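Quick one, T. Sequence first:
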Amino acid sequence: MTNQIDNIVRQAHEGSVAAIIQVLNDQLAQVGVRTRAVFADGVLQLLCEAAKVELLEQSNLVDRVRQILEGISPRNICRVNINCRLVREHQLLWLEEVSRDPQNQLLWSQEIKLIKPNFWQRFVLAEKERQERGPKLALPRMGAPRRFFMQEAQQFQRGIIGGICISVVLLAAVAAIYKGLNSQVANSTSATTQAVASPAGEVTPRSNVDSFAQAVRLAQQAATEGKTAQSREDWLVVAAKWQQASDLMAAVPGQHPRYTTATNRTALYRQNSEQAQQAAQNK
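Structure tokens:
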């Protein structure tokens, strides 16, 4: 029986109008008052009936109804309009009758506003409800969300670790490409230096043309790949090739017939490399 009463009170707290009526009738029966209620337009319309007028004394009944409802603290119900009259035959549409002719239907009517419990009172009520449900009901309800959040956290951690690993691998690959290009620059520069110095101290034009031509080929590759580059790694590769081309142009000696062009392109390719690096940072 106690569990049934607690269940009705809990339903009334959750906003059930039928449960609210039952709680009110249980507590007002001792003073000879019965109630009916309808929730309309955000207001709980409450009808209180009794066999005698003195049982419906306004101040006492209003205080008693307020105390009961604030003890229940029904959710989403703040305004209550208390309508009182002598007992009549059961009317399914009593609210329409009262609204149409309140002077002849009612002894009096008064609207009240319920005071909601503060934070600590709500906390105590919630804790009481949790304890009343018992551990057997509480544990299964909490277990599934807990496992869900634990799985979400594990997936999130795996995602972070996986993302870091992929980033490290990509950066290592870009560094290897850049290192390889730098090695090519060093080898090309060394080969050019060895080739240009003949026993008579003269420059071999063919080696100089190869260095210039290699720079042009790298620049063409960088320009082509720059048109389709999308990711950060793509732009880093393009930047490395532009820098390689700039270094090769800088290695062209002054005796080369296109030395002036090589000097201009050294600065231009370096600028293109910086722009590609900036594009990579913006990704």
